[in-house]
Amino acid sequence: MRHINIPIFIPHLGCPNQCIFCNQRFISGTYQFDESVVDNIINQALTTIDKDDECEIAFFGGSFTGIDRSLMIRLLDKAQGYVDKGLAIGIRMSTRPDYINEEIIRILKKYTITCVELGVQSMNDEVLKYLKRGHTAVDTINATKLLKNAKINFVGQMMIGLPSANIQDEIYTAKVISRLGASGTRIYPTLVFKNTELEDLTNNGEYRPISLDEAVERSAKVLEVFIKNNIPCLRIGLCESDNLHSEDSYIAGPNSPSIGEMVKSQVYYNLIFKSLKNSSLMKLESLYIECANGCISQIIGNKKKNVDKLKKTFGFKYIKVKENNNLMQYQLILKEKEESKDAFKIT
Predict the structure, then answer these.
(1) Which member of 58, 156, 189, 291 lies 3.0 to 4.6 Å from 182 by CB, making a disulfide possible if both were Cys?
(2) How far apart are the C-alpha atoms of 119 and 104, rounded to whole Å?
């Protein structure tokens, strides 16, 4: 069964702030919102979805719970109609932490809300202030409590490489999101778009976008926190669109359509490196690795990057990776010989 979101983008609607990094029109590729086409978008998407797929109608791109109340309720009513017909399992939305309150909760409880995605970005108040977010870390904590009390799942979206932030801030944010009970997360390395304050800060040298390699390393450290806490990562990096590569919109930053795979590959390398460092296997000539189905390419790395680094670091002459049906993602078995019973399992 596949999980599929039918996205309805509402760029900047309901958002009271203009954060220094944000231009949702460029990010989503949607420049204005037309309520009249919502049914067409949903119905068209439904024609591409298998009957066994798990489907949600998702209001993304702005602060959904901050838009005009009558519009929000009309959109919720419309989406609920598809849920009532069995064409979708529920409704998902993105919003700001400070736009979740008791009034909003009362409204949402009337509908089949499967998840609210909160734009947490950081749990460091100094970083939030620099970003001109207009809310604090406490607002995020309060929002998650209200959602959990209402039995509504939440996803914590966070960013990597923000101005004035460092890897310690990012790891701390991931730990707090985990502790608050998120059902999932999204990790977004910071990109610089035109017509944002971040563009000005970049041009005058006050902000240095992190490199792709740095974004991968920092995102991997954050992802490891979520893995440890059994919180699934729904996405790393923005959804691909022409605007992410256009000179008319994208300025700078770690922009790659394969960044998610690169981050997962880095996580695997980190896991193997840490395990080998204090293991008798590090002194051997050969290394056999077993992994979950579909993970071989992530372990090997792009252009065999991970394999080459492991050989260089530990002196292995031969490394082989194969799938094991009994392993889950990020679980590994390391051993000297392919059929050896003397194995080191990483879970």
Answers:
(1) 156
(2) 16
